[in-house]
Design brief:
With 635 residues, this protein is mainly α. It is built from 27 helices and no strands. It has helices at 15-25, 37-61, 68-84, 94-110, 115-126, 132-149, 151-160, 166-180, 183-208, 220-231, 240-243, 252-261, 263-286, 296-320, 323-331, 333-336, 356-377, 382-406, 411-425, 430-460, 464-492, 503-517, 524-546, 557-562, 568-587, 589-622, 624-634.
Length: 635
């Protein structure tokens, strides 16, 4: 078989001609293994493990990283190693790895995003977690709603319009390189990823896990604390700065996060954090509005308003400025549901695509489940649930198109649009406001995530129906692992506190409270912060839109706003990581380009997993007498 190549140019012609060209020139799903048990199991296992890393990163820094490329590299390395050890006869095919990628992405990314935002906000509001079964059901039905909602969008956006979906393209190219350049390059990347994960895990254990061995034992974290106490002990640099989170820290996870996000975003976070924690917060303290020795939890109640306003105004305005994509989304509604087809005869392509009956049943199941839980848990009326789902479809339609064109899924802006809408139609309920927006943003993310993965399969010649099934199966493992992980962390570590600032949850909470309680009860400083934040977000967004060349010289408004909701030293670590990559590109460009992503991904995965393990181990240690008693009674 001739080596497959990813199409570099769009197919042209009528919709039928475009699909036929793809089938003849690219499709190979009938002659190669794709949806296999090992592909789905590997994706579910890797995705479930990586979902814990995204939970940790989301609760600490408000960031989310797709697991697709990490899972691709790990899967290729593992199955190639299994073959060399004689454990399997052959490694995974490229289409098996593509199916694995879909399962891993669904399991590790799209199911957990709602937990670190909406559910984190609810925990902060009520001071306790919700029922685990309820959270699990909510996440599952929302994922079902979103994934099946993408079915009618796929054929129009990917087959006919051939939108780029850059992350999907990157995943396809990564798999193509791994499977076509021989084993050496793929194995090098995999070894680099796993080695960096081990080193980051050891570093994290030395920082915060030594107490598991012996209470009061030396640790790298205590050494960092001593160093900070030595620096911040004078009159100029007093210990007050440390309570404002202005201190040094050693957390390789955020160095790696900066390496991936890039210099502009990282510098924006550092700039915003400096303005917040070194200018605004000291001014608030000097005015006597908050105690000088107040900790992060009390201080962020003053800083989050300006940061949230900046993120909301920038997000919604950026979304509105995509008006061509929005109009195109609605103008293609007829094509989505096949209204423009002249013939109802099933074509060869029809037999490859996920059928519309799956869309119908998915919407019925997802809507019914969410409506029942919303009604009995949040006292949401049936008409309000229906309104939320109807809004979800149109917002998911737009979000998927914007993702396809720009690689940015505007779920934050989507959620805020629904929060503002329900703040008007059902005022006074914080819980209802968060729940309704959660449906829209969560389902929109699931739709965009599916289409991104389907795009990589489209380029590699995969069977789209099998790929959809792989994505759908990932929902089950992702729901269980992400929800149980979140519940354990939220029940034993304060959400919104210093260890888990939960920036996403802070934003959702602030908007819901503002829309439900009214602005008139807020302190004037908070109102001025909101006004200035809105203005900064609008001005920066407009300048970058009408003068695109200025973008590289201006801070990113969303990153600028986000920095007002978490620690200053995170911004410093982000920036150091980004600058390290810039230095590497200048000195050893080829090495940096080959190994930057595997090393950074490994550091994030290894460090975050060890941090989660330490949290779980401390929980077990605390409750060990009860656990051992239960075990002895059972056996």
């Amino acid at each position: 078989m001739a080596e497959h190549s990813i199409p570099k140019r769009k197919f042209e012609g009528t919709p039928e001609e475009i699909e036929r060209q793809w089938y003849l020139q690219v499709y190979r799903g009938d002659g190669m293994k794709q949806l296999t048990v090992r592909a789905v199991v590997t994706g579910a296992v890797l995705g479930s493990i990586l979902s814990l890393t995204n939970l940790y990163i989301g609760l600490t820094a408000g960031w989310g990283f797709g697991v697709t490329l990490t899972a691709c590299i790990l899967s290729f390395t593992l199955w190639t190693a299994f073959q060399k050890m004689g454990l399997v006869k052959e490694p995974m095919t490229i289409l098996e790895n593509n199916c694995m990628q879909s399962t891993a992405s669904s399991s590790g990314y799209s199911t957990g995003s709602t937990l670190v935002s909406a559910f984190a906000a609810l925990v902060m509001i009520h001071g306790k977690t919700m029922n685990t079964g309820l959270v699990m059901g909510w996440v599952f039905f929302m994922a079902v709603l979103g994934v099946t909602m993408a079915i009618p969008m796929k054929r129009q956006m990917i087959n006919i319009e051939q939108l780029p979906f850059p992350t999907g393209l990157a995943a396809a190219e990564t798999l193509q390189v791994l499977h076509s350049s021989g084993e050496s390059k793929g194995l090098r990347a995999g070894i680099a990823l796993m080695l960096s994960a081990v080193i980051a895990g050891i570093s994290e254990f030395l920082m915060s896990g030594m107490d598991l061995i012996k209470e009061g034992m030396w640790s790298l974290g205590k050494l960092v604390d001593k160093f900070n106490n030595w620096i911040f002990s004078g009159e100029i640099l007093s210990s007050d700065w440390m309570t404002r989170t202005v201190k040094l820290s050693w957390e390789p996870i955020f160095l790696a996060a900066g390496a991936i996000t890039g210099t502009r975003i990282s510098l924006s976070i550092l700039l915003g954090g400096t303005l917040c924690w070194c200018v605004f917060i000291p001014s608030v303290q000097a005015a006597g509005l908050v105690e000088i020795d107040a900790g992060y939890k009390d201080l962020v109640q003053w800083s989050l308003w300006g940061g949230t306003a900046c993120m909301v105004s920038a997000g919604i305005l950026s979304f509105a400025l995509q008006w061509r994509s929005i109009l195109s989304s609605f103008s293609s509604l007829g094509s989505l549901f096949g209204m423009n087809k002249k013939s109802q005869k099933e074509s060869l392509i029809d037999r490859l695509e996920a059928p519309m009956s799956w869309f119908v049943w998915g919407q019925i199941v997802g809507f019914s489940g969410l409506a029942i839980m919303a009604h009995y848990t949040f006292r949401m009326s049936w008409w309000a649930s229906a309104l939320a789902v109807v809004m979800t479809f149109f917002l998911a339609l737009v979000a998927s198109r914007v993702t396809g064109e720009t690689d940015i899924t505007p779920t934050g802006a989507m959620g805020k649009v629904v929060q503002l809408t329900f703040g008007v139609v059902t005022p006074g309920s914080v819980d209802l406001n968060i729940a309704s927006a959660n449906i829209a943003s969560g389902a929109a993310l699931a739709s965009a995530d599916l289409l991104t993965d389907i795009k990589s399969g489209y380029l590699l010649g995969a069977n789209p129906r099998k790929q959809f099934l792989a994505q759908f199966l990932g929902i089950f493992s992702g729901t269980v692992f992400s929800v149980l992980g979140f519940q354990l962390m939220a029940q034993n570590v304060e959400i919104g506190g210093s260890e888990f600032p939960a920036p996403g949850g802070q934003t959702w909470k602030a908007v819901a409270e503002a829309m439900s309680g009214g602005l008139q009860e807020m302190h004037p400083v908070k109102l001025w912060s909101i006004g200035i934040g809105l203005a900064v977000g609008i001005v920066l967004t407009l300048i970058m839109h009408f003068y695109p060349r200025s973008k590289k010289y201006l801070p990113a408004p969303t990153a600028l706003g986000l920095s007002w909701t978490f620690h200053w030293h995170y911004g410093l670590l982000f920036t150091l990581g980004a600058l390290t990559v810039e230095f590497g590109k200048r000195k050893k460009k080829a090495f940096t380009e080959e190994f930057m992503f595997p090393i950074a991904s490994g550091v994030i995965a290894g460090g975050a997993l060890m941090a989660v393990f330490i949290i779980f181990a401390k929980i077990v240690k605390t409750y060990w007498p009860e656990i051992s008693g239960w075990i002895s009674n059972v056996f």
